[in-house]
Design goal:
Helix content: 40-55%
Strand order of the largest sheet: 2-1-3-4
Number of helices: 5
Structural class: alpha/beta
Radius of gyration: 14 Å
Distance between the termini: 12 Å
Shape: globular
Strand content: 15-25%
């Protein structure tokens, strides 16, 4: 039986998210797995969407980008999002690849999402696949 992944991607920084998603899909297809994609308005909503679908998929990949601004908001969103994703993974024993970039600026995010450079969507998806196998 083929394993099925859910990609949950924040579309707040659309170019970055699209790059991460393309990298993730490339790895999924190389491994001959089934997948679906759900878009979230921001990274903070990703854990909710994973939890809502926890029984329907074998693994999950969280994709998105949080860029530091002038306030504490960056730290709150990045820390709480990571904490809740880990909580869900451990409590439900389901792997969740963490492909949420936390960057100082958009240039860093574009490099880390570029399919020909450091695409973290690929890396997070590969980690998830290794755990479900």
């Amino acid at each position: 039986m083929s394993k099925k992944l859910l990609l949950v991607t924040s579309n707040y920084y659309e170019k970055v998210s699209n790059n991460l998603t393309e990298g993730a899909i490339e790895v999924i297809k190389e491994n001959d797995l089934k997948f679906e994609i759900i878009k979230a308005p921001g990274c903070f909503e990703i854990p909710f969407l994973i939890k809502k679908n926890i029984d329907l998929f074998d693994g999950f990949v969280a994709l998105g980008c949080i860029i530091r601004g002038e306030t504490y908001h960056f730290d709150l969103i990045a820390n709480e999002c990571a904490r809740k994703i880990m909580d869900i993974s451990v409590s439900h024993l389901k792997p969740i690849g963490f492909g949420i970039l936390t960057c100082e600026n958009l240039d860093q995010a574009l490099i880390r999402s570029d399919k020909n450079k450091k695409n973290k969507g690929k890396e997070a998806t590969l980690a998830c696949i290794k755990l479900i196998r």
